């Protein structure tokens, strides 16, 4: 059935959006299992901290081993969000939530890659537990690294000598958005590990409960509290209200406690559950909230959630190919466009079914981006060049026309950013050539489905 012939059906899960938008045609012959394996492998290239013996991308080495020391806390580990060396807590928490959701809904379709997916989730949650270790004192650590200092250099994470400033939110400087997303990630991951590691699952859920309580009690956007540190990089444009409902929805799913169901019902209007359901990403959770909660209705529970199902259905109907909608645009080659960059986060287009015949997943297919905007990938590895490469010494690698020496397998870049499907394979074009963890995370579940059913 051609994509424009797909009828509008009820929304079972947020990843169904991607399934609809990337439904393979009869002519498609992609190796989805290979793409799945590589999409998970990418996260090993984004690891910060001391790398484990089973690290598969061997050109990466230990980095940022003293993170948190200036604040008297261990904040090693976690993920670098993109091509820089900052650990931004907001997109990292969302990445972890989406990895967990991928496992929850599609883990049975992952085959031998399930173990690697679980490691990817845990690498995120281990860090988030560290970031919330002082929650008893009303503190959540939300970022490590000064972005201006970092973005002024082109350095390997293994060589970092830029400021590793630690940023936090607390009762006087609230961050309901980042704290709410952190609670959502911990709650979602508690479901992932419920039957695999009971004690760890319980720790995650208990911490999620405490962090959510903090986020709700001290309401406010973290970009107001930490504007210079997080804007314009991950400034909360959409407001913190959606993260509170998003966290409550995940806590309800993880705990089945009545209080979270009542919280959602009581705050639906106040926190604007029906607002801006036209996209889904690290900043705007409204579509995700409605799709997640709508599953309660679809499974015969909670009729008082019916409005969420209606909102979710409306969202998915609005982005189906062939349906005219003022908030949705497509490139001539079929890529959905939203405001801003990194359109790949919103796709068989990614794997090469596009006018350029290019796979936008690094290492997949014969033709893929060679000069991605990524420090560790573009600089020679420590094994090849053991000597320190300083802040400005890396500039010649950034400006070089040569392909990156280290292949960041599985990385999905931002992709074409105009209406002609054109793609500049060049590091300075960061919106098009920079990969991010939150592009890859929802793709993991999608590729698991295709690898099992195609």
TrEMBL record:
Every Glycoside hydrolase family domain range: 32-347
InterPro entries: 6-hairpin_glycosidase_sf, 6hp_glycosidase-like_sf, Glyco_hydro_9, Glyco_hydro_9_Asp/Glu_AS, Glyco_hydro_9_His_AS
Reactions listed under catalytic activity: Endohydrolysis of (1->4)-beta-D-glucosidic linkages in cellulose, lichenin and cereal beta-D-glucans
Catalytic class of the enzyme: hydrolase
Signal sequence annotation: 1-27
Protein family (similarity comment): Belongs to the glycosyl hydrolase 9 (cellulase E) family.
Name listed for the protein in its UniProt record: Endoglucanase
Species annotation: Stylosanthes scabra
